[in-house]
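Can't attach files on this board, so I'm pasting raw text. These are the components:
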Amino acid sequence: MAVQEELKKIILGLLPQVDCVIGWGPGPDLLCASPYFMRRPEEVDNFLAGPMATQNTALYLPEYKGKKVALVVKGCDSRSVAQLLAEKLIAREEVRIIGFPCAGVADMGKIAARLAPHGEPGEAEKAVYGEKELRITMAGRELVLPLAEIKADKCLRCAHPNAVFSDHFAGEKAAGNDDEFKDLAALETMSLEDRFSFWEKEMSRCVRCYACRNACPLCVCRDHCVASSRDPHWLTQADGVSDKLLFQVTHALHLAGRCTGCGECQRACPAGIPVLLLKRALSRAVEGLFGHSAGLDPETRPPLLTFQVEERTIKEKAW
Amino acid sequence: MDMQGKFIPRAQLDDWLAELAARFRVWTPRRAGQEDSGAVVYLPEARQPELNRKPTESAKRVIFPRSEPLLRFLRKPDPDQTGQKSLELQVPDADGPNLVFGLPPCDARGFLVLDPVYAGVKGQAGDSYYLRRRSQTVLIARACSRALTTCFCHWVGGSPSSTEGLDVLATEIQEGFLLQPLTPQGEEVLDSKLLLSAGKEQMEAAQSAWQAAEKTLGPGADMQGAQEALRALFDNAAFWQAEAASCLSCGVCTHLCPTCYCFNITDEAVGEKGVRLRSWDACMFSLYTQEASGHNPRQDKAARLKNRIGHKFSYYPELYQTRNACVGCGRCIKSCPSRLDIRAVLTKALALSRPAAGKPETTAPATVRPAAKPKVNKPATSKPVAAKPGAAKRGKEASHA
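---
Top answer:
Structure tokens for the assembled complex are below.
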């Protein structure tokens, strides 16, 4: 992959100037990579970019405060960086951003669903991502899955496949798609009762591991979360849907106008609960109300973190 | 008397589960959620078990629930003392007997790790909530037909067809399942008109299924010295910081783990009424070690990862003088959002403790060797009948107490 090789050259060039370069490297299997922290030139050989590079590298940035790091970013990751900058949670002079044209990442749930008649993804003896397809060898048989079928939903509607801003860029910029929030349509045609039972059913699988929270690059409360606060004791530890849903709603509201839609909350969920939908509904509301999409500009203050006597898009006097 | 193996055609499986459901709360791994996401979770539903995919979560919660009421309390005005309140306590009703059908053998071995903790070793009191469910739960595992890339049961004494801790082993053969009883309770649940007697041919088919499954396991590892290797790394902060770099400090690994047993206790009150809950806790959470003074001895995720791995392979086996607190199910690898691989950390720790292995930073080929000669189960008919294996007994056996 030409872009991957070009990225390696950029990383090698940056290594002497930074504490580490965060990208992706080999995971426990060939389907999905792991976040990869490069400090030595020989480590760059194993760098990976492509459909297996699912994790959002921006998540780690606040941990490296005071150190200089370089970050390889997909378009969605770059939006998280822009949002962290806009909220002054990281310092611009401490990060170097390496962009590339992202063609989308693989969705492990979709791969599992398509492999279901033959086995499960963990049984793959070999997995190779090509330009247009994923080739999996399982029980001696090769199965070909078109990338278009296994790409994450967020990639199918991605308007910013290239980094929204970068210090270095590998390859030619790719074209984006329109995001019309079509993912919300199915839920919105449901009655309120049906919608609530949908969430009750989905949330019943929640094990309260808080991977959704910890995988979110914009969950800034970290160790002071409402979900684990003892005083005041906001949430009970009962294994019921109401407490689990209360946390999700709190999380989503706290992210209104801040969530960039990277989808890490949903990807991290071991129970496959579509928690991104809640944040998407709020993102659309903020877009409608304030004409603001999070994470597009490191200089713009998010609308709910500031105050205007008269909002640009809300014509109160006309009411 | 040798215990007789049985056979059930796949088409009759639901009928048998329904029959069992009259006597037990039957739990099966079931697919739940949307087509492109979802998970395989244990549900108290005695039908259509998902047996082609490894359950996303372990079966732990059947015996050790995510959250359970220990007691209910109610404060009432004290009729004898004006202005004073009296406290009324009530122990929740015990639930009935459970049966789990279709768990992988590693999940059953997980309970053998929990047993010494809750059975009360060395004369200590046992945990009545755990022990009651433990003694009333029948475990029917299905032998794994294939290992996943994340499976490493053979590193820690298991196998795809391990019978340890089971009441019945089910092996998929010839459009059905061979069911082998391993305990008197197992024999009892196989006493059904829906089940056929298994013949020699079916036993042989099962044996070749076990052998085929063994062959799908990845390379094994020599775990000798893991206890000492991890202890030697206790003060090596740089090692743990490097290994924990990608960790999110979430609870996926601990909450899906069949052997993690830590809990928290909270009083959940509304007004004068409330419930004292015991719920799962995770050593990966910062609050886990937060002290009342505000001091936290495990400040960062590196210290927490060190604890999780150290506990499983060093402190637990030392404390209870028994097996590792890991059954190699691989869920902590498979479902980790960062795909942090506990095997890689162990391999590096072992390599560092073995100077002869050469470069410590590599994956240390000297510590990884081909899987040991497959240990294949003998047919259950040749197994001696265990005398009255109750939960407490299992616990004591496992703890060597």
